[in-house]
Write a structure and sequence with these properties.
By secondary structure, the chain is of the alpha/beta class. Helix content is 40%, strand content 16%.
């Protein structure tokens, strides 16, 4: 089976993806810098779960470390690279912008160079629904322009798409970018709303509800994300014969490059999301209504037709069902 490098292997999506790949028989190499953006205890707990997998090996490496990344690629020679490591979070990018440059730009540059010089067959990389920025035409389609980001996080993710296209063009490196839409589920990130809301509801603290609850999100359950990603491994992009330089589509190219939305294609009202979470936890939330925060967008909504056409699958787990599964994990993990 192919050798696959997964960056951000101790992260939320990386953890689930490594499990899925190992179950499918791939030889999986994982790296992560184990930073303290959120409590590293959770990252170590994920790694502990992965440690029993015989076809998985892990090293602690920072993507921004050029020498370490060059050495790692030379030693391991991965055939497929899946880049999930990144500094995440819209609001944190306002507080600590330099972290996003180091990880999302410098780190991604080192990934591209490693792929270029080591004959990687396919680079799959995480982008984000945040790239749609000030665009208000929904559902968001990969053909839409994304030239107006409203957070530095979004700007770095759009930059990743442009950098990857450059390497696809110059070096014929097949690149697939994935625009994730609000991923949630067990073993998730504590900075995400569903997780932080859960912490506060359980502890009887107020939850901050922005834009007075008038927001919509396309929540995507983690199992749907990793299923899509596994199916995309062998769906290596090739130049699009219908691509025209006179009317260039952003989602494909005359180079081996492709972008896909991965979302549930079903935006949910924020207040309905809170109700589902209350039901799953068996406890009511104390809500503090606040105005819209800088960098936030009113709604996310993915058109996933292209994803379905490519791999015969699209996310469909209902939000209520997914939150119930998260609540079961949360109570077990924290011994409640």
């Amino acid at each position: 089976m192919k050798k696959i490098l997964v960056t951000g292997a101790a992260g939320f999506i990386g953890f689930h993806y490594v499990q899925k790949l190992c179950a499918a028989g791939f030889n999986v190499y994982g790296i992560d810098n184990l930073n303290d953006y959120y409590d590293p205890t959770l990252k170590h707990a994920r790694l502990h779960e992965l440690s029993s997998l015989r076809n998985f090996s892990f090293e602690q490496i920072d993507l921004a470390d050029k020498a370490a990344m060059k050495d790692y690629f030379a030693r391991t020679k991965p055939e497929i690279v899946v880049n999930l490591a990144a500094q995440a979070g819209v609001r944190y990018s306002i507080e600590n912008p330099h972290a996003y440059v180091d990880s999302n730009l410098t780190g991604f540059m080192n990934i591209l160079e490693g792929c270029r010089h080591n004959d990687v067959q396919h680079l799959i990389f995480a982008s984000s629904s945040s790239v749609y920025g000030a665009n208000t035409t929904v559902p968001f389609d990969e053909d839409h322009g994304v030239d107006h980001p409203v957070s530095l996080y979004a700007a770095t993710k759009k930059s990743n798409e442009m950098m990857a296209h450059t390497y696809a063009h110059l070096y014929r490196l097949p690149c697939t970018g994935l625009r994730f839409f609000t991923v949630y589920g067990p073993w998730g990130r504590p900075d995400m709303a569903y997780y932080s809301f859960t912490n506060k509801i359980i502890n009887g603290e107020n939850i901050q509800v922005f834009n007075n609850g008038d927001m919509m999100r396309d929540f995507t359950y983690i199992d749907d994300i990793v299923e899509s990603m596994v199916r995309l491994i062998d769906h290596v992009p090739t130049p699009d014969p219908n691509w025209s330089s006179d009317a260039p589509s952003p989602k494909s190219s005359d180079s081996p490059y492709r972008l896909y939305n991965i979302g549930n294609n079903n935006p949910e009202k924020l207040m309905d999301f809170i109700t589902y979470l209350e039901d799953a936890l068996g406890k009511k939330a104390n809500m503090e209504m606040l105005p819209m925060q800088p960098g936030d967008v009113y709604a996310t909504y993915a058109n996933t037709d292209d994803l379905h056409d490519a791999i015969g699958f699209k996310p469909s787990t209902p939000l209520k069902e997914g939150l119930e599964k998260f609540a079961v994990w949360y109570k077990r993990y924290y011994g409640l």
